[in-house]
Amino acid sequence: MKILWVGIGGFAGSVLRYLVSGWVQESSRSVSFPYGTLAVNVVGCLLIGGLSYLADERGLLHPEARLFLIVGILGGFTTFSAFGNETFALLRAGEFVPALANALLNVFLCLAAVWLGRAAAFGIWR
User: Which of 17, 24, 94, 103 has the most neighbouring CB atoms within 10 Å?
Assistant: First the structure.
């Protein structure tokens, strides 16, 4: 049953990733920088920060809900493998500054988003 929860969540998260990433990328009108992947990673990290706080500190998520939401949906929604591939493609194309910017922005903003998500959850549910 656990595998089913993760699989259903992963399917939903992957579909959401495709829709959100595509919308952000199209809205940015950029062909040279992967804004869609960056946005999905930051939003996913913000959500995982809040949900992990609720699960770890408040015990508000049952194990099945945690598997569905955090491992399934957010695991399918965030795109770190796409981030790695897009950064490598920028490097191969000789786009060293955008590649470095992509790597630094993804790491910094995603870590900050996890912290912000946890802080927001703490502030709301203290």
Answer: 17
